[in-house]
Structures are given as C-alpha cells and as structure tokens.
What we know:
Layout: H1 4-9, H2 30-36, H3 41-45, H4 48-62, E1 67-68, H5 75-79, E2 84-87, E3 91-94, H6 101-105, H7 112-115, H8 117-129, E4 134-139, H9 141-150, H10 158-166, H11 168-192, E5 196-201, H12 209-215, H13 217-226, E6 234-238, H14 245-249, E7 255-257, H15 264-270, E8 276-280, H16 289-303, E9 308-312, H17 322-334
Parallel strand pairs: 1-4, 4-5, 5-6, 6-7, 7-8, 8-9
Antiparallel strand pairs: 2-3
Helix pairs in contact: 4-8, 9-10, 9-11, 10-11, 11-13, 16-17
Amino acid sequence: MRDDLLRACRAEPVDRVPVWFMRQAGRSLPEYRELRSSHSILDVCRDAELAAEATLQPVRRLGVDAAILFSDIVVPLQGMGVQLDIVPGTGPVIEKPIRELQDVERLRDLEPEDDVPYVLDAIRILRDELEVPLIGFGGAPFTLASYLVEGGPSRSHLHTKTLMFGAPEVWAALMDRLSSSMATYLRAQVRAGAQAIQLFDSWVGHLDPQSYERYVQPWVARIFESLSDLDVPRIYFGIVTGELLVPMAATGADVMGVDWRVPLDVARARVGGLPVQGNLDPSILFAPWDVIEQQTLDVLRRGGGRGHVFNLGHGVLPETDPDVLARVVETVHSWSPGG
C-alpha cells in the first residue's frame, strides 16, 4: 500500500507530497453522474456496494494518494432518529428542527453496527480493493447542530446562535449527544478499516474565537481524545476559519485542514507546526493551465514538503474538468522541495 498520506500526516519523510481532493468522488466525474442517474445520493450512501464504487472512481481516474469514503455528514443523524432528506440544489433538510431540550432528548445515541451498517460494510469492501489509505469522516458537532437547529443550510445561523447564546444548557446537551455519537461513529469506521479520519466543521467559521472556545472547542477535543488510542491521523477542517486556527489546533487534531483564504505557511505558523492539509482555491482549476500550475506550485512551496497533504481549500466544484484534477496530481507528484 502507498502510505505517503499517513506518513505526511505524522510529519514523517515522504517520497512525494501526497494529494487527494475533498469531494473528489462526485459530480465532476462522468462515471459518478452515470451512477446517480438512477440513484439518489442517500440511495448511494445506504448501499455499501454503490458507496464503495463511488469512492473508488476518483482513485482509478485521478491517481490520488487516498480515498475518502463516499457518504454524507448527515447520514448518522438518520441513525439517531432524525427525519431528513438531501434536496438537490438545497442540501440537507430536517423535518423537525431542534429548538428545545425535549427535542434534544428525542435523539438516540448512535449504534453504528445497527444504525448505519452499510457505512461499515462499504469500508470493509474498500479495504479489500484499495492500494491507498482510506479516510473515514464525520461531521463536527457545531456543523451538525447547525443543520439540526436551522432545519437546513443557513446564511446567518440565527437559530443556532440564538440557542447557543440564549439557552446554553440546551446547547450543551445537544453538543454532548452529538459529540458522543460522532466519537462512536468514527471509532467504528476505524475498526472497520478506515486508516485516517477527517472531522468536517463546515459552518464553524461563522463564530468568533471566543465563542468557538466556549461553545465548540471542548466537544471537538472530546471527540479527538476519544480516538487517541487508535493510532490513526485525525484531520480537522473548517471553512473561513483563519481566525480560529489557533483554538482549532488546540483540540488535539493531528492535521489541520486549511481553506484557501489563509496562505499555507501563515496557517502552519498559527497551528504551532502541526501538519497541514490544503489549500488550492477550487476556482483556480477553471483558469488557464499556466495559472493553475503556478498556483499549485505556490501552495507546495508554502507547504514546505514535509508534513503537508496537498488538497483544495474546499471541495471540488461540480463543473471541474477531471483531466485538470489529474494534471494537478501529476504536478504535485513531480514536485520536490527546492526543485
């Protein structure tokens, strides 16, 4: 197995900088669009064979150094008793938003083998197929809480912040339930065969550092601490989190994912020398190749080689040309510090 990704996550020497892309399995690939022509996204997530196929597609086509399990961060919420759907063009929509303590008490503690067995089955299938590491993942408590409280995606996160600031005891109960279930979920993925895990905190960048430290950090730290005995890299990623990188790094994560808004060398200094992942702007992939190449090399230089996993600063956009992604992979693999 090619283990450059695992070595980079531990800041060990690597033969080449490893590269994978968030949302590498998805709408940018024609073979994925063909798969989705007869299946909803939740259908694919809940079918182990289909999820494994969607996971493998970008590895075959792009030559990336890791696979990330095809799923969605809201899948375990269904296992906790939440009625939801993923609506095309909108995203997750929650049938009964959480606003009071009794709503929190409706949530079941997740039992992965019983509630989401297809996720674990997909991981087991993939470990037999893959020659690169498999990344498992879950949603961070704040981001999951935001979906649950808002009822879906939100620009202002008004209801979420109202609950967080105005009813801290309800907020704590919700974060307790979510962090406990996510820790259980991620542990089950590792036991099934995932070799690294990533915690996605997509909406946490809407908070200031003080609010993050009080209302989010303790529960993220609890998740990472609960996984510390498993000896797998723990990656933490959020969007618009430049001002949160210091407290995010204090959660116990092994690798900090960085979006494109912060230069990677600046981010590394903020996170105290932790390995970093990122951070090419996904929109750059629509520029002429000489611009893409220049920007890719700039990210590599700022990453410094050791302790750097090349990625985008967010997910692959659906309109992205897969051939451009493959060319970026080749550029990353051919680069060497000082070269």
